[in-house]
Amino acid sequence: MLCLHITPLLVLVLGVSLGFAFPHNTLRKGCSLFKYKQIMVHEKKAVEKMQKEFRKIRQPGRNCNIWLFDREWMPAHLLVPDRVVLVEAELNFTIMMLQLSTHPGFTKMRQRPLAFLTQAREDLRGCVAPSHQPSRALSQWLQNLQVAMEMENTGCLEDYAIRHVLEVLDDLKCAALQEQCS
């Protein structure tokens, strides 16, 4: 009778022990970010065209003071799972901001970059184990992003996101690299 009550406990202890025996800093199986190791030139050109169009329609005189991508650390210094978490957050932010504008010229120019960024976000989903705990630096940045999204003017957030899309692409490339990136 005692054996029946101990068996689930042994299974639980064994499961937890094996969990600690294997590294948690790896990407999940089935997660392939290989295609992002080299961001296609035509994708970058589409982003540059979109940015140029946005500069034409941008409202002058905005007093914005957002510095989300000016960090004391570089994505290259993060472990690969943290890089993926960072890029996923950047993509969520950027996609949300790109979807806000209703200006006809910009709406046309944003279609290709928006499709590419949305596909990249879908490819990243589920790459990191749900139990992964981001580093302290990344956790602080994620919190700063959340605060900025709640406190800042939507126009400033949109402007910031569009000006920094190429940095998001660079961070995506960095996340795709299993080794250090520059």
From TrEMBL:
The keyword Transferase does not apply. Its main location: secreted. GO terms for biological process: cell surface receptor signaling pathway via JAK-STAT; defense response to virus; innate immune response; positive regulation of immune response. GO terms for cellular component: extracellular space. It is found in: Secreted. Keywords: Antiviral defense, Cytokine, Secreted, Signal. Residues 1-21 form the signal peptide. One of its GO terms (molecular function) is cytokine activity. It comes from the Eukaryota. Belongs to the lambda interferon family. PANTHER family: INTERFERON LAMBDA-2-RELATED, INTERLEUKIN-28 AND 29. This is IFNL3 protein. The lineage of its organism: Eukaryota, Metazoa, Chordata, Craniata, Vertebrata.
